[in-house]
Amino acid sequence: MPLFGRFKSILKQTLYGQAPVWDTPWQHRYAGYSPEDLRVFEKFKGIPREAEPGFLKDYLGVRTRPASLAEPVRVLAGHLQEIPVPGGDWHAETIEHIGLLKSVLDAKGRYRVMELGAGWGPWLVSGAVAARHLGVEAIDMLGVEADQGHFASLRQHLMDNGFKPEEHTLLRAAVGATAGKAFFPKVEDPANQWGARPTQGNDPADAAYLASVMGGQQAKLEEVEVLAIGDLLCRMPQWDLVHIDVQGWEADICRAGMQELTKRVRRVIVGTHSRKLDGDIMDIFHQAGWILEHEKPTQFIYDRKAEKLESMTKGDGTQVWRNPGV
User: Fold this and answer.
1) Domain spanning 7-322 has what CATH number?
2) H or E element: which one contains 88?
3) For residues 30 and 315, is the Cβ–Cβ distance under 8 A?
4) pTM for the complete prediction?
């Protein structure tokens, strides 16, 4: 599912305003958060920032280059964006921002964040900037991204926000349940392609999925390294946030990494890409004793002809989980 499929409605909200979700009939609400949850933004109000040509700038003051993002978003260059309530911003739901800020507020003197399927690193950098705003100087970022173009944007995004890539861990690879190799699509226009994922075999359904997110064309593949989730988690004794969005491998990754996740991670944000994946992820974390803080399910339109459930998805879901034992 393209990352910016919901862009038009969010752009309209950003430019013209929109009624709060609480003004809609109760049976039509599915915000994923309560009014009390919005208090998490209070510590991050009034951050000094000025509009800057060539960058989007959000409520935290994070600078994002529109040139590295999908073309429709570039109209927001030079804009200042406010707190992403009620419906989120141009790339994420409100609950994703709430989960991020909770992870920063719960950090204890040091902030450690991991982003798997990092893209340009929005959650790495937003978490680090928010922590820096609260006076946290010790920050560790680990990002894993398989696409070459997105990986270049990831490094640039850190530099654009005052972080040196060489002082953090940025890995061009895929992430999986176990270490190994996989094939990843060679994307000609990475700024406008955010649905690609690795494949490890000759599964026709995988080929059909990749064709569906690449305009019906057969994907050209290159071999990439797959890093095991457990090995990545063991690089630090503790993580304040692990953000996972790998276009369909989330359940296998979380299931394989649950022992280390439960041992080392305070909070996990997971992107979901089918109704089945919604349930699989919920079952994995619930059975492990985690607490579901926020969630919004995948939106889809049923299609009998689709070979993969992900191919029916029109809007990705999100789950925010807290580990009560860390």
Assistant:
1) 3.40.50.150
2) none
3) no
4) 0.87
